[in-house]
Amino acid sequence: MEHEVFHAGLKRRNIPLAIAPFPYPILPITLNTTLREVAKSSSTDPYRFCTTEIHCPNDRRPILFFFMGRVLAVVNQKGGVGKTTTAINLSAALALEGIRTLLIDCDPQANSTGGYGLSRNDERQSTYNVLLGESSLHDITLPTEIDTLRIVPSSKNLIGANVELIQHDRRAFRLRDAIQPERDKYEYILLDCPPALDLLTLNALVAADRLLVPMQAEYFALEGISELIHTLERVRRAFNPILDIEGVLLTMYDDRTNLAQQVRENLRDFFKDKLLKTVIPRNIRLAEAPSYGKPVQLYDPRSRGAESYRELADELLARNEIESPRARERKAAASARGNPTVHFWPYA
Ligand SMILES: Nc1ncnc2c1ncn2[C@@H]1O[C@H](COP(=O)(O)OP(=O)(O)O)[C@@H](O)[C@H]1O
Ligand SMILES: [Mg+2]
Questions:
Q1: Which residues are 244's β-sheet partners?
Q2: Is 31 helix (H, G, I), strand (E, B) or coil?
Q3: pTM for this predicted structure
Q4: Rounded distance, CA 90 to CA 270, Å?
Q5: Are residues 185 and 141 in contact, defined by beta-carbon separation less than 8 angstroms?
Q6: Are 176 and 203 in contact (CB under 8 A)?
């Protein structure tokens, strides 16, 4: 059996599809196979497929299609490294590019929820009710100020889910099962994780396609990362074979210090191209914005913080070969301008 891995030129709604060897039983796909049929097949995992028709380029290729990196967990078991700041502002940056985005707050501290100006009110249905199977994700999804962005709020009682879920079956799959019917409605789904490798984070890792790991450029930056990588490998083996790191993001970065530069070099040696080129500088606007209930792009769009999260969104979209609706519009506008007519003074 051929084991080539390549990105196909197939794009639906500008989301790249990958064709790859897969650890699952492999289905022959013919020219007329629809992904709906593939998804229905009992020998494959329906979570990983889009469900609309797409034509395959060649007859009977022993390959499977799946979306790359649509569910992105923002994870690091250390607190205060910029997970929530990244979840809030990256989701806004993607949504402002016209990408349909869902932010799911998986942290009982509910800082992403608060950062979007929603109360952390325990009465409201939240991720807690979803994990316990009392509500569907769809029912508790809330709109935000940005049209293309929705949010699933968290609440303090989510902390109880860690204990209450222990008696439930498929306890690691609760979030993944809940996301499944909503997957196709969004191009990106971001999960803001708690600062622990607990059952909540496990649910996020099982639900995710990729991990985004924010880190501070400090001397002990790598401490704890080996534990995270170990967890990633265990989750991959036991629950979610395609899970991988999308990128490691340096946050609160101060390039004036030698230490920060040194740590960046070390991380580049360790993570290679998984270390993202974009770094998030320390910027007071990023710290202020949540108290106004807004992402930084709406609070101070010209700040360095807003700029850096725009850059992060661009980098992730480029890595995944996704062209956003705004990027398409910019391209169309540029080509419509075509060759500008040059007028010389005096303008007659
Ligand atoms: N780039 C940044 N510049 C300035 N302050 C930041 C930046 N990123 C995060 N912070 C602040 O640092 C604190 C911890 O960040 P947070 O995103 O909540 O981390 P985590 O979710 O990993 O615990 C928050 O008060 C936040 O406002
Ligand atoms: Mg947080």
A1: 210
A2: coil
A3: 0.82
A4: 24
A5: no
A6: yes
Which residues contact ligand 1 via a Cβ below 6 A?
79-85, 111, 195, 251-252, 280, 282-283, 286-287
CA of 314 to the centre of ligand 2 (A): 23
CA of 284 from ligand 1 middle (Å) equals: 10
**Where do the structural domains in the chain lie, given as residue ranges?**
3-67, 70-323
Phi, psi (rounded to 5 degrees) for 32: -100, 5
- What dihedral do alpha carbons 313, 318, 323, 324 form, nearest 10°? 0
Looking at residue 48, what is its pLDDT?
A: 41
Structure tokens at 23: 């650890």
CA of 74 to the centre of ligand 2 (A): 9
Q: By 3-state DSSP, what share of the chain in percent is helix, strand and coil, each rounded to 5?
A: 40, 20, 40
pLDDT at 304 over 80: yes
How large is the average pLDDT for residues 3-11?
A: 31
User: Which atom of ligand 1 is least distant from the CA of 283?
Assistant: 3
Closest-CA residue to 129 (of 92, 62, 175, 93): 175
The single residue listed with the structure tokens 């979840």 is 87
pLDDT in tens, 11-68: 333 333 434 333 333 344 443 444 555 555 544 443 343 323 334 444 333 334 444 4
Q: From ligand 1's centre to the CA of 283, what distance in Å?
A: 10
pLDDT digits (tens, 9 = 90+) for 234-281: 999 899 887 899 999 999 999 899 999 999 999 999 999 999 999 999
Give residue 250's identity as a one-letter amino acid code.
L
> Which of 85, 286, 296, 308 for a ligand 1 pocket mutation test, highest count of atoms within 8 Å of Cβ?
85
CATH dotted code for 70-323 = 3.40.50.300
